[in-house]
Design brief:
Number of helices: 6
Strand order of the largest sheet: 1-2
Largest sheet: 2 strands, antiparallel
Structural class: mainly alpha
Number of domains: 1
Helix content: over 70%
Oligomer: single chain
Order of helices and strands: HEEHHHHH
């Protein structure tokens, strides 16, 4: 919706084993890319806060929004980071910086996953997120 309001074009949608990907052609300014990338996670967080009485929906929505803001290349946080770095660096340098930040983010999620596994033993949500991030960043 945010992309349509800014660019007046609908995104191109592609599907893979890792999920759905939206590509926005008409977004030329970094501020437009940041706005579109931030719209989804902030909508999830807002919904989670609005429906706080429904605990499971609220926690799911808040978690989805927060995870989607992680600065990994395949998430909206990575799109925000890429657009912000392209304002200050050449595209090739911005790409390398974003890739490095993505790898560090994945490593931190993996370390957090190991800590959760050692403490609680059965929570696989961080492991699933880590596998997804590795697959989308490397593949």
């Amino acid at each position: 919706m945010a992309a349509w309001l800014i660019a007046k074009e609908l995104p191109q949608i592609s599907f893979s084993i890792a999920g759905m990907r939206l590509s926005y052609i008409g977004l030329s300014k970094p501020s437009e890319q940041i706005t579109v990338s931030a719209a989804g996670p902030f909508a999830s967080i807002l919904l989670g806060l609005m429906f706080f009485d429904s605990r499971s929906f609220s926690l799911f929505s808040l978690g989805l929004g927060i995870v989607n803001l992680l600065p990994a290349a395949c998430l909206d946080g990575g799109g925000i980071l890429r657009a912000a770095t392209e304002k200050f660096f050449l595209p090739q340098a911005a790409y390398k910086l974003c890739r490095a930040v993505s790898i560090v983010t994945i490593m931190l999620v993996f370390i957090l996953d190991c800590a959760v596994q050692l403490k609680y033993g059965t929570n696989m949500s961080l492991a699933i997120i880590t596998v997804y991030l590795v697959y989308r960043t490397v593949g």
